[in-house]
Amino acid sequence: MSYLSGFRNYHSTEALAGVLPIGQNSPQRCAFGLYAEQISGSAFTAPQGHNLRSWMYRIRPSVAHRADGDLVEFVNWVSQSDDSNTQIAFDPLRWNPLAAVEGHWVESVRTLTIAGSASSQIGMSASIATLYERQQPVLQNHDAEMLVMPISSSISLRTEFGVLDIGVGSLGVIPRSAFVELSTENTTQIYLLENYGSPFELPNRGAIGANGLANERDFEYPTASFVEQQSATWVIEKREGRFREFTLEHSPFDVLGWHGNHAPYRYDLRRFNTLGSISYDHPDPSIFTVLTSPSQTAGVANIDVVVFGDRWLVAENTFRPPWYHRNVMAEFMGLIYGTYDAKPNGFLPGGASLHNAGSPHGPDYDAFSKASASELTPHKLSGTLAFMFETSAPQRITHFAANATERQKDYVGCWKDIQPASQIIKEFNVPDNISRNNKSTDSHNG
Ligand SMILES: O=C(O)Cc1cc(O)ccc1O
Ligand SMILES: [Fe+2]
Q1: Helices then strands (H, E): number in the chain?
Q2: How far, in Å, CA of 385 to CA of 366, rounded?
Q3: In sequence order, what are the residues at sequence separation of 6 or more whose Cβ sits closer than 8 angstroms to the Cβ of residue 87?
Q4: Ligand 1 in contact with 342 (CB < 6 A)?
Q5: In the predicted structure, residue 435 carries a pLDDT above the cut 60
Q6: Residue 361 known to bind ligand
Q7: What are 247's strand-pairing partners?
Q8: Distance from the CA of 107 to the center of ligand 2, in angstroms?
Q9: pLDDT tens, 121-133?
């Protein structure tokens, strides 16, 4: 399969020569009697650099790809952060990998955290889904741009724009309102991020310069391909967190050519050009940002997608793992493979954690003890891939996430052995129990 390369490049692709009109978008009659259709990813008037749209040339306009449908409920896919579905998360929380769920992937989606809401068009939801080998429904999600990362086996992602294969260690991004079908040859869990805010873009590199982090040319877009067998298709449509299903007499994947800068793409996270400290101190993790969804406030992201991959640690006289901190943003984390240096125990591939806005956290006791005593020779972190969805809005947890058997009831216990600074305790005769309020019991107040 061939791909087009370059983040937000202006791509042109034909499954059949002569499909794309030359010098215009919407001729009186398109080649082969095809229909021209524009799909926008931004307001028509968005400024240059943020203006996203593509033109498709298709067998039927997508208005023909709708039918009356019935509302259907998928209760664990949550897109509104009201009290009926979600609750406030005071404590740091962590989940073991979720058990696979029967059924098709849309009904298998279990949302763990949500910031903002689909209706407000701010924030995100973070979920885990199970994808089986069998036939899956086609989804059309008007609520969000979706980002998917398979956990144990590669997946194939077909949209009207063509097909993208997404291996373990890669991500795929699907534009809002595109028809999408997921398939796999081996059952796999998938991390699923819904971005309710503005579409992902590359972070400004600032003083880093013109290169580094995720490089534009490593983002790959599909070449046009269409489903020739126009058979009945089962579609699920999502809007403001509600679902409707209907059957089409034909396939919505009927685009023979498209051009534009708005399309699904994939990115291999192993290509991320990780930068870091070559002198001292642990830098802020913003240098690991792959994609950012900007908010209305300059410098404040709606969502940053951050990745912690293989890298050298060389900083001198430095506590090398993440420091203890309270972040004004909220941090959802997941692990694709390997071990995460701040949490060598209990943070498992396919699992997840939440450290909400302002919530204190940092290395577990084990990580702290080792890193504060280790010899500071250059050290390579290998075979690891963790990620973070960092949001400016606080993240709520779903009732499912609160009550899941996979939730680690004693996550905060990973900090319970932390001792008060011993020399101060001795010097000033401070009773050491006053600073020990880390309970190892379940302090989640649900
Ligand atoms: O909490 C975490 O593990 C994520 C994180 C990593 C890091 O290197 C610095 C800050 C931060 O929030
Ligand atoms: Fe953090």
Answers
A1: 4, 29
A2: 20
A3: 396, 397, 398, 399, 402, 446
A4: yes
A5: no
A6: yes
A7: 234
A8: 31
A9: 999 999 999 999 9
CB of 69 closer than 6 angstroms to any ligand 1 atom: no
Cα separations in angstroms, 18 against 30, 160, 387: 10, 18, 42
Mutation pick for ligand 1 pocket among 289, 329, 331 (CB with most ligand atoms within 8 Å): 331
Cβ–ligand 1 contact at 331 (below 6 Å)? yes
Cα separations (Å) of 401 from 89, 384, 387, 404, 444?
Answer: 10, 25, 19, 5, 12
Locate 173 and state its tokens.
């991004």
Q: Is the CB of 388 under 6 A from ligand 1?
A: yes
pTM beyond 0.90: yes
- Please give the torsion angle defined by the CA atoms of residues 131, 135, 141 and 147, in that order, rounded to the nearest 10 degrees: 30
Output DSSP code: residue 273: B
Domains and CATH numbers, the chain: 66-255+263-269 (2.60.120.10), 270-435 (2.60.120.10)
Tell me how far apart the alpha carbons of residues 286 and 378 are, in angstroms, rounded to a whole number. 22
Ligand 1: atom nearest CA of 388 is: 4
Contact 35, 59 (CB under 8 A): yes
Ligand 2 centroid distance, CA of 327 (Å): 7
**Residue 320: CB within 6 Å of ligand 1?**
no
Catalytic residues: 282
Atom of ligand 1 nearest to the CA of 390: 12
The verdict on the CB of residue 276 being under 6 Å from ligand 1 is no
pLDDT digits (tens, 9 = 90+) for 131-176: 999 989 999 999 999 999 999 999 999 999 999 999 999 999 999 9
Beta bridge partners of 116: 123
Tell which one of 306, 327, 329, 389 to mutate to probe ligand 1, the residue whose CB is within 8 A of the most ligand atoms: 327
Ligand-binding annotation for 411, yes or no, is no
Ligand nearest to the CA of 323: 1
Rounded CA-CA distance 272/322 in Å is 19
Residue 337, both tokens: 């493979």
Residue-by-residue DSSP string for 120-189: TTEEEEEEEEEE-SS---EEEESS-EEEEEESSS-EEEEETTEEEEE-TTEEEEE-TT-EEEEEESS-EE
In degrees, to the nearest 5, what angle opens at C-alpha 194 toward C-alphas 163 and 117? 150
